[in-house]
Write a structure and sequence with these properties.
This protein has seven helices and 17 strands. It has helices at 100-113, 128-135, 147-159, 174-184, 209-221, 242-252, 254-257, and strands at 2-3, 10-16, 19-24, 27-32, 52-56, 62-66, 74-78, 81-85, 118-122, 139-144, 167-171, 190-193, 198-200, 206-208, 230-235, 260-269, 276-286.
């Protein structure tokens, strides 16, 4: 498992009984996490000092209980990148801090390539991967079906002084966008995919990961240049193991380009226990 150990403005303080205790800069949040199934005693003395707790509803969804007055938005930093944090109605904050392990690898690969690199970031969310690639010198096409998420990503770019970086910000259904890019003959050196388990496109298109992921992978792989750099798939779907994603990449890419495929869980170190909380999975093909 790879753990995002280089944060200063984020910290997973403790995790037990279905909840995370997290520090986002100076703000303490308590959020539910289905992975935290253990019932160990609370080890941090900060549980009683949280600023807000997210409670799930029995009818689905949930909401925040604010213990203290908080700003609607605030900022955190990671290696020169700045992200706007805001508690949403779906418990998220706009940043998945475990993805920093992938941001670091994108940075390393792009800088080591020593040539112009074009990256396609599908299901780009609030732009963590986009900003890491742009800061490393790549030209990036950022695609997400949510107009609000793309706007949030652009705010993050501005906060990171990357508002003038070569980034195309596109609100579109990712499957339809890839199909159009193929017809246009577009090509990319690096591709990042962070698909949801389930979702709807801007036109009501239904996305179900298990049914759609392999056809989309196969189609998107056709957008790679003749000298590609990397292809990454991230997943937060419990039933989609890292090895499954790695298997798909291994069938699609090494026969054409060579290179190597790796897959692993990614996670966050827990300060109180010294353990690592699994948070998702990533599969990489690297030339």
């Amino acid at each position: 498992m790879l753990a995002a150990k280089n944060w200063q403005d984020y910290e997973l303080l403790d995790a037990t009984a279905g909840f995370r205790l997290e520090r986002w800069n100076k703000v303490l949040l308590q959020r539910p996490d289905p992975q935290v199934i253990w019932q160990t005693p609370q080890q941090s003395n900060l549980w009683g000092r949280v600023d807000a707790i997210y409670h799930r509803s029995e009818k689905g969804g949930g909401g925040w209980e604010y213990k203290k007055s908080l700003p609607e938005k605030w900022k955190i930093n990671y290696k020169g990148l700045t992200f706007v944090v805001s508690p949403t109605g779906f418990k998220h904050t706009g940043v998945f801090p475990e993805q920093a392990v992938n941001w670091d690898e994108y940075t390393r690969l792009i800088q080591a390539a020593n040539r112009p690199i074009k990256v396609l970031n599908l299901f780009g969310y609030t732009g963590g991967a986009t900003l890491a690639c742009a800061a490393a010198g790549a030209a990036v096409t950022h695609v997400d079906a949510s107009k609000g998420m793309v706007a949030w990503a652009r705010d993050n770019a501005a906060a990171s002084h990357l508002q003038d970086a070569p980034v195309r910000w596109i609100v579109d259904d990712c499957q339809k966008f890839v199909a159009r890019e193929l017809r246009r003959g577009s090509q990319y050196d690096g591709i990042i995919m962070d698909p949801p388990s389930y979702g709807r496109g801007p036109g009501g298109e239904i996305w179900k990961l298990e049914d759609a992921i392999y056809p989309l992978l196969a189609q998107t792989a056709q957008l790679l240049t003749s000298t590609p750099l990397f292809f990454t798939v991230n997943s937060y779907t419990t039933g989609l193991a890292p090895g499954v994603m790695g298997y798909m990449l291994a069938q699609l890419l090494p026969p054409r380009f060579g290179g190597t495929v790796t897959s692993t869980e990614i996670g966050l170190p827990v300060t109180a226990s010294g353990g690592i909380l699994p948070c998702g999975a990533s599969a990489w093909w690297v030339k």
